[in-house]
Amino acid sequence: RNLKQRRLVIASHVTAAFSSNLRIPEEWTHVGKVDPKEELQLTFVLKQQNVELLEKMLGLVSDPDSAHYGKYLTLEEVSALVRPSELTQKVVRHWLQSYGITNSYLFKKQWFFLLNIGGLHRLPPKRQKDVFNRKQSQPKAGLHLGVYPAVLRARYNLTSADVGTSQNNSQAVAQFLEQYYSPADLAEFMSIFGRGFQHLSVVDRVVGSQGRGKAGVEASLDVQYIMSTGANISTWVFTNPGRHESQEPFLQWMILLSNMSDLPWVHTISYGDDEDSLSTAYMMRVNTEFMKAGIRGISLLFASGDSGAGCRHVGTTQNSFRPSFPASSPYVTTVGGTSLKNPFKMTYEVTDYISGGGFSNVFKMPDYQVSAVNAYLKSMAASLPPQSYFNTSGRAYPDIAALSHNYWVVVNRVPVPWVSGTSASTPVVGGLLSLINGQRLLKGLPVLGFLNPRLYKLKGQALFDVTNGCHLSCLDEQVQGKGFCAAPSWDPVTGWGTPNYPALLTALLA
Ligand SMILES: *[C@@H]1O[C@H](CO)[C@@H](O)[C@H](O)[C@H]1NC(C)=O
Ligand SMILES: *[C@@H]1O[C@H](CO)[C@@H](O)[C@H](O)[C@H]1NC(C)=O
Ligand SMILES: *[C@@H]1O[C@H](CO)[C@@H](O)[C@H](O)[C@H]1NC(C)=O
Ligand SMILES: *[C@@H]1O[C@H](CO)[C@@H](O)[C@H](O)[C@H]1NC(C)=O
Ligand SMILES: *[C@@H]1O[C@H](CO)[C@@H](O)[C@H](O)[C@H]1NC(C)=O
């Protein structure tokens, strides 16, 4: 009963402590104080130990040339490695007790460092655009092919035999912002589009509560497509209940993962925020949670975003590109988007101009990508956007891509065409990685885990290089709506390109 009030005491205390360095992004206005009766759920995260060691070890277990490759840790081992020190725990406990909060209120589970209090000192995601989906382009007159499972399976060279066969394999999508998947829509989707390959038509497990609202396009898209490429593989949905418009959901979701010992190997997530709307401390902590997942052998795939290089007004006349997080985390695999050169035929792929990509202003460039990115910067030097628009010392993304244009999705029992966005390409790539994980498990090999170090060592082998087209950016005189352009080999628009499944399977089974 008193907890509510006490929470509010902390809330005002913390707000005061943080307000001095609270950045109010453009497009936001400070309208006043929150109603004191407003309830808030707080997450206290404690400083963890050995984060540098964790990072180093993750590099080793993910590097195919290391003797430690695939030697993943269990959840218990990870927890022991990073456990907050006694001192940290004591300090935070005392601090809370000084506000009358006793142990009985406190989490019995893990302690998290008071580095950041999720949902309190950050601004909510601005609009639905933060869900990377449903850029529904206008239907053009005449025939339209559109993308559905058979198109993807043909383009990426999957045969009817390329379905999951390993019993211990599973994959997941995570949903936020009150998006719910509909079991009936999934069944309908598979009855219409699931011909010609063995697949499942039901989700095996839902973690979290499915709301009663209408099915969301995003949730439908993710589930329907991860189960089409990752066909016949057990699929889970992680769903965050309640309103999240004022709560960044990633930390809660990662905390949930860090309390489950049996998890799917591949997770795809089609949500993100502008890096500049989040605090660095928050992003650093979420990034550490990504490392903790990676060292357990879990692959996290994030959509690169649907605004190309993005645009941020940094001064009255000055603009810069606008990176998106978690796409910009060095410890996730970020998926960009493409479209078919000729949408009426099975042609090669070109850049989808919405494909998110660029350079982080927060995370520095990880070693695994330095030579690929530098090669791009060098070969494109003459035609790059002005240096003031992006930060070449940052983590560059995306890493890989897949079709993201004109998908068919079943929503509220109706097949809907023209659904586009990197939230389509992300589950498609996730399902393919799950298939490869399944083949590895059958051979007694460890799963792929954090893929990037291995992906960059392939140097584009087994991927269809996308070399045509540029993505969008600031509509100003200097760049005139143009961001980066695709080029041979890696580029910050489509990464290394799109998967040629049989070749990728061979390369990643070695
Ligand atoms: C998850 O949290 C509960 C307490 O909420 C704890 O008892 C349990 O040991 C945790 N499980 C793991 C695997 O960390
Ligand atoms: C895969 O698809 C591409 C183009 O769609 C084709 O050129 C190639 O021969 C196919 N097969 C393999 C095994 O790569
Ligand atoms: C589907 O997966 C199951 C294991 O979960 C396997 O026994 C079955 O053979 C698979 N189906 C096909 C067509 O490979
Ligand atoms: C699945 O995992 C369980 C427990 O880890 C193991 O005993 C079993 O042999 C595995 N089955 C297959 C088909 O790999
Ligand atoms: C550029 O990125 C680095 C991280 O690699 C960061 O430390 C630095 O602050 C960024 N510069 C700007 C102007 O944002």
TrEMBL record:
<dbReference type="InterPro" id="IPR015366">
    <property type="entry name" value="S53_propep"/>
</dbReference>
<keyword id="KW-1015">Disulfide bond</keyword>
<dbReference type="InterPro" id="IPR036852">
    <property type="entry name" value="Peptidase_S8/S53_dom_sf"/>
</dbReference>
<dbReference type="InterPro" id="IPR050819">
    <property type="entry name" value="Tripeptidyl-peptidase_I"/>
</dbReference>
<keyword id="KW-0732">Signal</keyword>
<dbReference type="InterPro" id="IPR030400">
    <property type="entry name" value="Sedolisin_dom"/>
</dbReference>
<feature type="active site" description="Charge relay system">
    <location>
        <position position="222"/>
    </location>
</feature>
<keyword id="KW-0720">Serine protease</keyword>
<keyword id="KW-0106">Calcium</keyword>
<keyword id="KW-0378">Hydrolase</keyword>
<keyword id="KW-0865">Zymogen</keyword>
<keyword id="KW-0645">Protease</keyword>
<comment type="function">
    <text>Lysosomal serine protease with tripeptidyl-peptidase I activity. May act as a non-specific lysosomal peptidase which generates tripeptides from the breakdown products produced by lysosomal proteinases. Requires substrates with an unsubstituted N-terminus.</text>
</comment>
<dbReference type="GO" id="GO:0007417">
    <property type="term" value="P:central nervous system development"/>
</dbReference>
<dbReference type="Pfam" id="PF00082">
    <property type="entry name" value="Peptidase_S8"/>
</dbReference>
<keyword id="KW-0458">Lysosome</keyword>
<dbReference type="GO" id="GO:0004252">
    <property type="term" value="F:serine-type endopeptidase activity"/>
</dbReference>
<dbReference type="Pfam" id="PF09286">
    <property type="entry name" value="Pro-kuma_activ"/>
</dbReference>
<feature type="domain" description="Peptidase S53">
    <location>
        <begin position="146"/>
        <end position="510"/>
    </location>
</feature>
<dbReference type="GO" id="GO:0008240">
    <property type="term" value="F:tripeptidyl-peptidase activity"/>
</dbReference>
<dbReference type="GO" id="GO:0046872">
    <property type="term" value="F:metal ion binding"/>
</dbReference>
<dbReference type="GO" id="GO:0005764">
    <property type="term" value="C:lysosome"/>
</dbReference>
<protein>
    <recommendedName>
        <fullName>Tripeptidyl-peptidase 1</fullName>
        <ecNumber>3.4.14.9</ecNumber>
    </recommendedName>
</protein>
<feature type="active site" description="Charge relay system">
    <location>
        <position position="423"/>
    </location>
</feature>
<feature type="active site" description="Charge relay system">
    <location>
        <position position="218"/>
    </location>
</feature>
<dbReference type="GO" id="GO:0006508">
    <property type="term" value="P:proteolysis"/>
</dbReference>
<dbReference type="InterPro" id="IPR000209">
    <property type="entry name" value="Peptidase_S8/S53_dom"/>
</dbReference>
<keyword id="KW-0068">Autocatalytic cleavage</keyword>
<keyword id="KW-0479">Metal-binding</keyword>
<keyword id="KW-0325">Glycoprotein</keyword>
